[in-house]
Amino acid sequence: MSLSVDVFLREPDGQRRIPDVPEGRDDSAGSESWRRTVWGSEPVRALGARFLPVPADGDSEIIEAEEVAEFLREVALLREHLDAIAENTQRPRGRAEHRAGLVRRLRNLEVAACRPG
């Protein structure tokens, strides 16, 4: 199982609708283990991350429209500390591959956060 990032639209009745991921886009936020070993890790929490550690403690995180700018700042903060996160989080394959995975997943999060429904 893997973690994915989905965009949702709020319908007039308050229900959420999740549109399909556009063709050619990747919605991966990492493998299931990343919930704890990367996004919920001490190095990420120590940076003050608020949104990404939540799935480690529960099932999911819903980021409302008014929180998107703050979420994007958090993603940018993690990008600034990418090497330290890659070095200090579990990686089954090696640092370079783990770092590349982090770059890809952070980009997926940014793209989803900026995508209109």
Radius of gyration from the alpha-carbon trace, in angstroms:
14 Å
Q: How many strand units?
A: 4
Structural class estimated from helices and strands: mainly alpha
Oligomer designation = single chain
- Can you count the helices? 6
Integer average pLDDT: 86
Low-confidence stretches: none
Give the biggest sheet. 2 strands, antiparallel
Order of helices and strands: EEEEHHHHHH
How far from one another are the termini? Answer: 25 Å
**General form:** globular
Strand content: 5-15%
Helix content: 40-55%
Strand arrangement across the biggest beta sheet: 1-4
Give the topology, please.
Elements: E1 2-4, E2 9-10, E3 16-17, E4 28-31, H1 34-37, H2 42-46, H3 54-57, H4 68-80, H5 82-88, H6 95-114
Antiparallel strand pairs: 1-4, 2-3
Helix pairs in contact: 4-6, 5-6
How would you portray this structure in words?
The chain is mainly α. It contains six helices and four strands. It has helices spanning about 35, 40-45, 55, 70-80, 80-90, 95-115, and strands at about 1-5, 10, 15, 30. The strands form two sheets. A two-stranded antiparallel sheet has the order 1-4. Strands 2-3 form a two-stranded antiparallel ribbon.
Question: What would a concise description of this structure say?
Answer:
The protein has helices at residues 34-37, 42-46, 54-57, 68-80, 82-88, 95-114; strands at residues 2-4, 9-10, 16-17, 28-31. The protein is 45% helix and 9% strand.
